[in-house]
Specification:
CATH class of the largest domain: Alpha Beta
CATH superfamily of the largest domain: Spore Coat Polysaccharide Biosynthesis Protein SpsA, Chain A
Number of domains: 2
Mean pLDDT: 95
CATH architecture of the largest domain: Alpha-Beta Complex
Number of helices: 13
Helix content: 40-55%
Shape: globular
Structural class: alpha/beta
Strand content: 15-25%
């Protein structure tokens, strides 16, 4: 039986539903790692029998919290769930896939709140320089049908197959593979790209990542990001994006991404001035430009 790890941060509005769904499954243990929530998340978790809580006094970030949760378990497979994810069925099929020969992780089908496939979130290719540049400029949001975005945000497969980058919201990991890779890279702080980095390292180490349509979960999406103030969202998103580029792309591609982020900062800074004020917007994007400049060097 697998174990389950749920990382929470001000998740009082969703954690009860997630835990209730997890308790209906046949699992070994459920571990909730809370990153210093300021709401009633911790109190709600402690009211649930057979759910273990690790309450961090500070926000250690998603990657570090996942590592804590997996380290607390001894199961061969561990399911990572976002608190706004509700597993519906197929956990046994997911476990079989995750523990198949040569497989390091497995994922299932994600449904949105409307009950349909969560398009654009479920399965993605690994980011290229073009992908990250288009993300920086917001082109994938303004023109979602562009060829770069179509390759990046892939359609949900109808059959079991190997994939690159499943969503970390519903991801089962083989414990031995997690140990071999040293867990999640905690320098992706507090969120964004830590799951992409882990999957990339899995693939680079020769492991397969399997998609299993028989495993299904419903996912609201965006829960963690919306808990952060606008200023921190910009800094953390671009910081993690640039770290991924520095870690996994060639020198030329890394520099191209850094330049794209710098150029994208100017229109974003102007837009931010109208919404959040001149000083707030300038201070944010000056720091982002500094981070991007490090990629150029």
């Amino acid at each position: 039986m697998p174990g389950i790890v749920v990382v929470t941060y001000n998740s009082a509005d969703v954690i009860e539903t997630c835990i209730d769904a997890c308790r209906r499954l046949t699992v070994d243990r459920i571990v909730v790692v809370d990153n210093a929530s300021a709401d009633r998340t911790v109190q709600q978790v402690t009211q649930n029998a057979n759910v273990e809580l690790i309450a961090n006094p500070t926000n250690r970030g998603f990657g570090a919290a996942v590592n804590q949760g997996i380290a607390a378990l001894e199961t061969d497979a561990v399911l990572i769930l976002n608190p706004d994810t509700v597993p519906i069925r197929g956990l046994d099929a997911l476990e079989r896939s995750a523990l198949s020969e040569g497989v390091g992780a497995a994922t299932g089908r994600l449904l949105g709140s409307d009950g349909y496939d969560q398009k654009g979130f479920n399965i993605r290719a690994f980011p290229t320089a073009w992908t990250l540049a288009f993300e920086a400029f917001g082109l994938n949001r303004l023109w979602p049908g562009n060829p770069v975005n179509r390759h990046y945000r892939q359609s949900t497969p109808s059959t079991e197959e190997d994939v690159d980058q499943p969503a970390g919201a519903f991801l089962m990991i083989r414990r031995s593979a997690w140990q071999e890779l040293g867990g999640f890279d905690e320098s992706f702080f507090p969120i964004w790209f830590e799951d992409v980095d882990f999957c990339k390292r899995l693939k680079d180490s020769g492991y397969h990542i399997r998609y299993t349509p028989d495993a299904i979960a419903q996912h609201r999406g965006g829960h963690s990001a919306t808990q952060l103030p606008w200023k921190e969202r910009q800094l953390f998103l671009y910081g993690s994006l640039l770290r991924y580029a520095s870690k996994h792309l060639s020198i030329a591609s890394r520099r191209a991404v850094g330049l794209a982020v710098i150029l994208a900062c100017f229109p974003r800074m102007l837009a931010g001035m109208f919404q959040f004020g001149v000083s707030e917007s300038v201070s944010v994007y000056v720091r982002v430009v500094w981070l991007a400049g490090r990629c150029l060097r």
